[in-house]
């Protein structure tokens, strides 16, 4: 009687334990990589998954996009400027079987690849490119990292450079460079304005030289402008023919 009772207890315990070890429920964004006696089977999920107790082992894999923060990296640019760069990468698992079988820890492996690639790509760029051409550098980083993680079933969708820190002395040098650039542009604009004004004056002088009456009209207009300003100054044009005898030109001739 005791033996029968013990057997019943064992059977009840098995009925209670076996469902917990053989039944799994996977969410919509999860997949299960099932190993049966060490051999991988086709990935399962989502929904209800039945396992063979003591034979099957399942590893859950999330297919959602993961935000991977890349720690601060010390980078020396192509023009020998030290910089501290932080970035962020977005990736997701597209093949659960390869993500478990091909690499031990795909999250850690992706992080290490992202760090080394960041130092390598940015080390080939100059400081001006690092500050002004981030979109191009982001695309290069994404392509290189994704190419290396593709065998693991990991798809890197985006890589963004968040912040670039440079030494204070280099910041002051960049500020001086920007100020000098603004001054250069101002001088060029001023010179272009003087050049255009000279062109217009030469054209006006050519037109006036063809018709002397135009000069008289210009003189009258100038007198009107002076009189309109309540000025007592009077400008009177004196023909050179009247003063030429006093300049000694006749004696020289």
From TrEMBL:
Family matches, as SUPFAM superfamilies: Band 7/SPFH domain
Start and end residues of each Band domain: 21-178
Record-linked InterPro entries: Band-7_stomatin-like, Band_7, Band_7/SPFH_dom_sf, Stomatin_HflK_fam
Cross-referenced Pfam families: Band_7 (PF01145)
Record family assignment: Belongs to the band 7/mec-2 family.
Name of the molecule in the record: Slipin family protein
Organism: Rhodococcus oryzae
